[in-house]
Amino acid sequence: MDKQKTLCIDYSKCIGCETCEYVCRFVHDVPRIHMIRAASGLMAPLYCRHCEQANCAKVCKRGAIRRDVDGAMVLLPMLCRGCESRQCMLACPYMAIFETDKGVMIVKCDLCAARRQVGQEPACAAMCPCGAIHYVEREAVAGLADEAFCEAEQRVLDCLRPVKGTAAPAPKEPEKP
Amino acid sequence: MEAMNFNFLCDEPPPPSGASVGIVGAGPSGLAAAGYLSCLGHAVEVYDKMPKPGGLMLFGIPGHRIPSARIEAGTLRMARRYGVVFHTHTKICCSAPLFEEEGDHFCTDVKGLGDMVKKHDAIMIATGSWRSRRLEVPGEELPGVCSGLEFLFPIRAARYCAPGVKAPDVAGKRVVVVGAGHSAVDVAHGAAALGAAGVDMLYRRTRAEAPCGSLEIERLEASGVRWHEGCAPTRVLGGDRAAGIEFRRRTPRGEEIETLPADVVVTAIGEVATPPFAKELGLESVRKGEVRWLNMTAIENVFVAGDALTGPSKIGKAVYSGLRAARSLGNWLELKAQNRQTEFSGDEFISREADRFPGGQFKDAPRVRGL
């Protein structure tokens, strides 16, 4: 498969306005991108990077997360049985698989599969007021990553995966402002 | 800069539907609605009191956060490709006397709601929240005290050749900013950039609770702004103009009264919604979800969306509210064209949908584990 496209958010440009989450909600009813506010006051939208080696797909016993023709990792609700162990959620290094109270109780980004079929780009990328969400070929991500990008990305990842022993006691629930 | 694509729901302009829709307010909510409705083929006209469409995305939030070129390209695309007409410098009716809200001095034309109802098949009110909240402390009316928007507007708007608009004069002055939202941060950065002698920020809670996030505060401190938390202003000091501010500081030992000298006090503590004709339109019941039709006001073809309905919120929520109201308006127009609009009004689906998003948080927000 050539030229897989993916989402790429420049956290250094993000102002936490939640437009991505709400536009996603409008298009998909249950949002697949989610703005968190950590107890430290850090705000960041969590999103799926459609990894080349996707952990979520590896751990799913039913093979319910598969790569589609454009390279997006999509959840197949017909195969997902909504298992209680939620292996995919735990396996995702970016915390981009979410629990809901609908359907199979799991949602993940499919890069707006229905929109892609008619040649449109993911809705969040189209509507981000800051231009922080890029829908690009995987190879182009490195080109977007300047110093500010990497610093902001690292800040978010440090919050999602604190190094053992260094982190402040983790809060239970991320709270929204 | 690539355009913000308000028309993200369609690729091509659809054939004209023959219906005409007026949208009052060209902020995130109004523009999202304009994008949705122009994708249905309606002839959309957008009215805004400011010199350019974009609302607070353009005039309130500085360009290093939201690139103005991206918003401008998005509205231009809507105008060129989808035939959306923008009437700038135009205010629709006045619930309050003119010049009471921020940005009123830009408008040169005032139209009544009655004319609008006659001219358009349906109207969407998305006027946002433009009246600055006040501290309600003595001395607030002194010269030298201004709101966050009053401070931020001229910085952006001076470029759009509005006569008599100058960037605030803070060079060499001591500035105190009250609040810790994004606009408070922007005011502090703005004051520092304009050469203020010193910038102090007062916030009544802690940095972890600050709406702007802790990172912004660290950045401010790095640029020399002094941060004071647990501080609630009690009085603005000064005779004929502001000379300082007195506040209660929460300390482990209790509360202490302190003062800071200040030549300029900026209160960036939020805004309140200013919908025109709130009472006549019955906005309170729309807010509660007691509606015949989603987002419809007491006047049948007038809809309401965004901050005007829910009070100040983030861009995302305003966009969602605009899109949702636009969908509701579109459905209603379609049924009205078939003369069937009464068939579905006030049905179960509508009240369920109104319940889901009563203007506050969603109950079914996605959950993450372990963070």
Low-confidence stretches of chain B: none
Measure the end-to-end span of chain B. 34 Å
Give the CA-based shape of chain A.
Answer: globular
Q: What proportion of the residues of chain B form beta strands (DSSP E)?
A: 15-25%
**Strand arrangement across the biggest beta sheet of chain A:** 1-8
**How many β strands of chain A by DSSP?**
8
Helix-strand makeup class of chain A: alpha+beta
Strand order of the largest sheet of chain B: 3-2-1-6-17
Features:
heterodimer, A: 177 residues, alpha+beta, Alpha-Beta Plaits, 8 strands, B: 371 residues, alpha/beta, FAD/NAD(P)-binding domain, 2 domains, 5-stranded parallel sheet, 12 helices, 17 strands
Topology:
The complex is a heterodimer of chains A (177) and B (371).
Chain A: E1 5-9, H1 19-28, E2 34-37, E3 43-46, H2 55-59, E4 65-67, E5 73-75, H3 87-91, E6 98-99, E7 106-107, H4 113-117, H5 123-127, E8 133-137, H6 141-144, H7 147-160
Chain B: E1 20-24, H1 28-38, E2 43-47, H2 56-59, H3 68-82, E3 85-87, E4 90-92, E5 109-111, H4 113-119, E6 122-125, E7 131-132, E8 145-147, H5 148-157, E9 174-178, H6 182-193, E10 198-203, H7 214-222, E11 226-229, E12 231-237, E13 244-251, E14 254-261, E15 264-267, E16 271-272, H8 283-288, E17 302-304, H9 307-310, H10 315-337, H11 341-344, H12 348-356
Parallel strand pairs in B: 1-2, 1-6, 2-3, 4-5, 6-17, 8-15, 9-10, 9-15, 10-11
Antiparallel strand pairs in B: 7-16, 12-13, 13-14
Helix pairs in contact in B: 1-10, 5-6
